[in-house]
Amino acid sequence: MLEKNISLYSYEPFMQDYIARWKYRGDYVLGKVFEAEFRKLYHQHFQDSKYEVVPIPLSAERMADRGFNQAGELAAFTRAKQKDVLGRKHGEKQSKRSRLHRMTAENPFHLLSEPPKYAVLIDDIYTTGTTLRHAAQVLQENGTDFVAACTLIRG
Amino acid sequence: MELDPKRYAGKRLLRREIPLSTNALREALQHQHFKQIPTLRKEKSSMYCNRCNATLPHLQNIDCQICGSKHLYCRNCIQMGRVSFCETFYEWAGPEPDWHIHDNPCAWEGELTRHQQIAADAIDQTMKQNGKLLVHAVCGAGKTEMLFQGITTSLQQGKRICLATPRADVVRELLPRFQQAFPTVSVQALYGGSPDKTGDGQLILATTHQLLRFYHAFDVLIIDEIDAFPFHADPMLHVASEKAKKPTCASIFLTATPRQKEKRQIAAKTLPHVFVPVRFHGQPLPVPASKLCFGMHKQLRKGTFPKGLLHWFNNRRNPTRQVLVFLPTVVLADTLQDEAMEVLRPSAQKILPKREAETLIRTVYAADKDREAKVQAFRNREIAIILTTTILERGVTFPSVDVAILDAAHDVFDEAALVQIAGRAGRSPADPTGEVVFFHEGRSDAMDKAVRAIQDMNRRAKRL
């Protein structure tokens, strides 16, 4: 379903700590470190302006807790056309779930508005790929022809 | 709904630290059980964090989706949860908690030495009078036991007490000792990742970071190891400890190695102090010996040990004592590990002849996941030799060890660190001596000062 996923970094211990502080502690400015590199990566693979970026959303509850969506921050870094077309049901954090549990979990995403024809999903970490596959499924069922993903880290 | 004042009093909490529903909190606010305090304040055109007092550049902008605007948040104390401009602190404004008045809380039955007793009396007096006191006691003086008398008196008066220390290792080590000494008192240990999180105990053991959560909470605040990292160098932690005290509060500072600031205050008589120059077993502190090793830096870079160290290993006075080898950096610990397994193995087998050779030599450093387990294994005499960074310089007690410090002139080994490291030896009354050796290629000021400080304490002990 996903045409491809590209990532900037691998998930080594230093990166783990850095991401924990950025995402879970909510140290917003730490994201800016990735801005130039992430934009470069995105434009290397998705030059054509037909592509639109779709950040993986947080649930409303999680957003109320964190105050920002790291995937949204990354999507803005690409400076590509952005479409926030996905909504998310509140559930357990992916990072607190086992691999099997993630793979078999039901799809938490739903559509908020019409999706783009060519979508590039943006997220911070690609671990099992379940989150991105779920999001891709929702887009494809609603008329998107091409879905790829661009993530900061391959776990 | 009834709220327990013990759970909330003496704290400034963020919304997410309060386990109440929106309705319950609204009701509590209507009943004026909480008052709201701004998270950031403006003073002379600068903004400050109301929890840790940090200002620019620690305050940065966040594009906040909660309130939909761009505003400041504090990066300085973010480890304890983010303080954002669009939120408020909740401070308890309900009835004061009734801390239990204990008749006879102390179950400790040991006896203090004469010198410990002098310090214990001074501590007790200071707590009664809400004063300040610096307790300068050598490594192995038995500081914890000296506190029991004063804590007992304070508990009899229904006071709330906190013992804070910069090191989580130390908090973990203290908890069982305090639980045994005060079995009827609610004792809680708070550190990053601790099982206890509520902080509603009458006797709190905590890392100095955890003090950030408290506000006007304690009648007695004891800070152990005031000279230790990160407390001595981090202004945030000093702010935190000041705020955690009630307006009238006794402050007790404990140290084995006072820094310049405290030494000056003692000399100027602005800080009352009591000095315990002798260990509880009455034996003098081991004075470090020095061994000059030519070519040591080159050898260490290549991952080999200097000959002087190996020679010392083979000629120790008591070859069955376990050994702590202190190294200046994690990198060095890493490069020397394999070599250590090879060349130190015969010595390790002499220390613990019955054990498997493979597990006798281990390295320990701050980020080591198995640190606690390794330290425990060393204590159980399952490990013969530990190569360690300064992480084991203080707070940990092993009954019978020799201590080697490789590259003792390195910058990380300042006077306090060297005195503390030397203080790991000879802790037990059954084996009150131990060898401490500085291996170096050119002495440092800190080395000389450390030796002089130890000799000075031994001299003062003898005069008593």
UniProtKB/TrEMBL annotation, chain B:
Residues 124-276 form the Helicase ATP-binding domain. CDD domains: DEXDc_ComFA. Gene3D superfamilies: P-loop containing nucleotide triphosphate hydrolases (3.40.50.300). Pfam families: Helicase_C, ResIII. The keyword Transmembrane does not apply. It comes from the Bacteria. This is DNA/RNA helicase. GO terms for molecular function: helicase activity. Residues 304-464 form the Helicase C-terminal domain. PROSITE patterns: HELICASE_ATP_BIND_1 (PS51192), HELICASE_CTER (PS51194). Keywords: ATP-binding, DNA-binding, Helicase, Hydrolase, Nucleotide-binding. The keyword ATP-binding applies. InterPro entries: Helicase/UvrB_N, Helicase_ATP-bd, Helicase_C-like, P-loop_NTPase.
